[in-house]
Amino acid sequence: MNDLNAFVKDEIAIILEEDARRRAANSRTFDPVSGEGATGERFVLDAGGLDRMFLPVSMRAESEVEELMACGSVDALLRKRTGRRVTQRDRNNFTVHFDRLRQLHDFPYWAATRAYIKDKRGGDDVLFILNRPQRKFVERLEAMRLAGKPIRLILLKARQWGGSTCSQLYMAWLQLVHRRGLNSLIIAHQGVGSEEIKDMFDRMIGRYPLSLLHEEDEEYSEKEKRVEWVGKTRTMFRVPSRNCKIKVGTAERPDSCRGGDYSLVHCSEVGIWRRTLGKTPEQILRSACSGVLLQPMTMIVYESTANGTGNFFHREYEAARRGQSQFEAMFVSWYEIDQYSLQLTDSQRADLARELWEGRNVDTAVSDRCQPGKYLWWLWERGATLDAIAWYISERSKYSDHGLMASEYPSDDVEAFVHSGARVFDKYKVEALRSTCVAPEWRGEIDVPGAADVAGRYVGDVERRDMLRRVGFIPLDSGGWQIWRQPERSEGMRVADRYVTVVDVGGRSSKADWSVIVIFDRAPMLEGRGPEVVAQWRGHTDFDILAWRAAMAASYYDEALLVIESNTLETRDPDRDTDGNQSNFILNRLRDVYPNLYARPRSDEDVARGAPTRYGFHTNVATKPMIIGTLVKVIREGLYVERDRTCLDEYLAYERRQNGSFGAIAGCHDDLLMTRAIGLHICFHELDAPRRVAVRQPGVRPQHRPSAFAAW
Q: Given pLDDT bands bounded at 50, 70 and 90, which one contains residue 579?
């Protein structure tokens, strides 16, 4: 018992030590004027005549900075340039010039010295000092700008940290400091939001130094207007000295959002935009952003809290997160926002640390107003401090449902998109599979030599069987196959029932469900481990081509068992765009050329009455709960090795609906998931255990040049 108590104390001490490190990191020095702790990579400039500064590395290339560092002081630099005694006026002029130069490179400095905003606590306006999530946001924007890329970002956020303000002031910085003629468009959710945006810009520009709206040596009048309204609607104003316009519209009035000669677009609270006047959010954004060129010094930001699934914002965020979009995805969780934290005493932190450690495996909550210990431990593992977790526990007691809390204060970008159904798979167990998800070793095509010669004409079964014996793999960057492990063969020995190929049938059009082919390797089961995903294809194609592609892959992987999900084929569904009326013909013909095709088990009654063999795995009200149940257990116990992160995303977006059925939440897919559910059920429950057997002449497949797939 004493040893156990000592062990617990050690674990708590480790938690407290890590918590102290996190709190120190969160509160580390951030001085935007000196540059210490500011965004991006920095270097130290310690030259006589100037305060010590931490400057963006992009300033190193400026001639003034290089020369100043070489000379060591402002006076030495000015003497070198003028060849005379340095005056105070010389020093002042250089300081002004250097200040302008730094504003060009250092957004946090410009914001903290030039941009006034309303103080939410009341009182006079204050300079804009970036908070912690705003610094994270600016780092993402600056990374794209400094790389010479167009700025394209979708920001999913918790509430109340100033993401909109930061985005709008960053655009103002580009307009007022970087380049003349950059027009901006800001689209708020509704009229109140647009008024706040205009008020914010008025406050900022009203106190902005007039001299900074002009070039350094440019003449100007102190009486000139900083801004002027354009037109009678008072939705657009111009900064004449910068030759730029700022237009503010609302999603409630689509005509106010029409695009034009804009380079910078910020769309606020996109997730809660509604269909208005016959316009969808997609149409409004297409109209607003279509004129923005894909070039440097342009910017489009979609920003919002989440508002359910299946809507435009959810679809666009998911595409960006998967790297399938022009945009990058960014998420800000509640525990990254300093105000969502309680100030605990040392003894309170120790008590909470013990509570977290002791409850780390508890997956049931004591009431509907708290989270189980497992969830709180997950927050700790994600990086939340004890003070932040204490705040979460307190705030959670205000809500009777976790979904309500998550919609306001999401902990990750999965739970941010709240849905009404119950998640089928344990998110912690799903995350545990992520450690083995890696990029494929090869991309390419599994193909048959000479297939192009027979495309477009009838191919007999004898010739087709011969083609399958000559299948090979060719590496190709644009190939559809992802290969994590090539088929393995040993001299004189093979593993029987090793590979399983599973096909989920989608459709031919881009709007149809995906078709997926996945290959499992069961050889690890010989050593007490689980099957591994070793290859995958995902795309849109006709069923006959998909079936042939799958047969080639199964043949390549040691004549694997080929399992084709057939309920889609046997049910005419125009939305899935499949050839259901041809399915039986195609599957029966496939059996004539590929012998290891999965057939449904037949009952004694079926055999007695001579019922024909039916090929393919049929997913229905009886079999679907069975295979999903298998998948739940396999994921829970970590019984297989996943390679594709996208499949894990499908697990996390899969729900049991109120009517008891299973399915992906609106806007998401389950094609990869179904191949795993079918394949793993067959791996564990319908096949004999894999076994090593001797072979007389082990085959070695040749590598072939890519060619077109044969037509049926």
A: very low
Query: Strand (E) positions, 407-460?
Result: 422-423, 442-447
One-letter amino acid at 412 equals D
**137-140: which pairs have CB atoms within 8 A and are 24 or more residues apart?**
137/163, 137/166, 137/167, 137/330, 137/332, 138/39, 138/107, 138/108, 138/166, 138/170, 139/39, 139/40, 140/328, 140/330
Name which of 225, 181, 178, 231 is nearest 206 in CA terms: 225
Tell me if residue 408 falls in helix, strand or coil.
Answer: helix
Pair 498, 560: CB distance under 8 Å: yes
Q: What is the 3-state secondary structure (H, E, C) of 78-107?
A: HHHHHCCCCCHHHHHHHHHHHHHHHHHHCH
**Exposure string for 120-142, b = 16+ CB within 10 A, e = fewer:** eeeeeeeebebbbbbbbbbebbb
365 closest CA partner among 333, 342, 396:
396
Which secondary structure element, helix H or strand E, spans residue 321, and what is its range?
helix 312-321
* Cα 22 from Cα 386, distance rounded (Å): 9
Mean pLDDT score, 164-170? 93
Q: What is the mean pLDDT of the chain?
A: 86
Sign of CA dihedral 136, 142, 147, 151: positive
Judge whether 140 and 328 are in contact, CB under 8 Å. Answer: yes
pLDDT digits (tens, 9 = 90+) for 415-446: 887 655 577 888 778 888 988 999 999 999 99
Q: How far apart (Å, rounded) are the C-alpha atoms in residues 585 and 635?
A: 36
- Rounded to whole angstroms, how far apart are CA atoms 659 and 656? 8
Main-chain dihedrals φ then ψ at residue 625, nearest 5 degrees: -60, -30
Helix, strand, or coil here: 678? helix
Q: How far apart are CA 302 and CA 292, in angstroms?
A: 14
Average pLDDT over residues 26-53: 95
- Rounded Cα–Cα distance for residues 380 and 384 (Å): 5
Return the higher-pLDDT residue of 361 and 310. 361
**Count of alpha carbons within 13 Å of 634, Cβ hemisphere only?**
26
700 token code pair: 């070695």
Take residue 267 and report the two structure tokens written for it.
């769309």
Q: Give the whole-angstrom CA distance, residue 180 versus residue 692.
A: 73
**Contact yes or no for 168/187 (Cβ under 8 A):** no
Tokens linked to 260 = 């034009």
- pTM beyond 0.85: the answer is no
Q: Concatenated DSSP letters for 67-78?
A: HHHHH-BHHHHH
Q: Which residues contact 214 (CB under 8 A, 6 or more apart)?
A: 220, 241
Give the residue from 495, 425, 418, 363 showing the smallest Cα distance to 648: 425
How long is the chain? 712
Whole-angstrom CA distances from 448 to 141, 469, 526, 630, 707 are 47, 9, 31, 35, 7
Per the CB < 8 A criterion, the answer to whether 532 and 690 are in contact is no
Q: Taking Cα atoms as reference points, which of 271, 233, 237, 276 lies closest to residue 253?
A: 276
571 has pLDDT over 60: no
Reported as a single tens digit per residue, the pLDDT across 242-275 is: 999 998 888 777 665 665 689 999 998 888 887 7
R_g over Cα of the chain: 31
